[in-house]
Design brief:
94 residues, mainly alpha, three-stranded antiparallel β-sheet
Length: 94
């Protein structure tokens, strides 16, 4: 967990409760490169929402520029969980 990522995420105004919670979850899992890769089902479980709601929340965070989403694949070409990179240079303080 990155303290800087959590401190950044808690200050951001995402305009929506679920998006804010998802941003905090991603920040709590972030590594030294500000990236994390929880699955949609894991995000949904932590946020007490459906996977569809988690997907919509992630999509909104991407659209607003809070995160970048990179698709990840196994060696045999199957998609696995996405990697999410926090945009710590973006500041939307409420």
């Amino acid at each position: 967990m990155s303290f800087n990522a959590m401190a950044w995420a808690i200050k951001q105004d995402t305009k929506h409760t679920t998006s804010k919670f998802i941003l905090l979850v991603l920040a709590s899992y972030s590594d030294e490169n500000d990236g994390s890769f929880p699955s949609y089902s894991h995000i949904a479980e932590i946020c007490c929402c459906s996977e569809e709601t988690a997907m919509k929340g992630v999509k909104k965070l991407v659209e607003l520029g809070f995160i970048k989403k990179e698709k990840r694949f196994t060696q045999d070409g199957k998609q696995t969980s996405n990697r999410y990179i926090l945009n710590l240079s973006l500041i939307h303080i409420s």
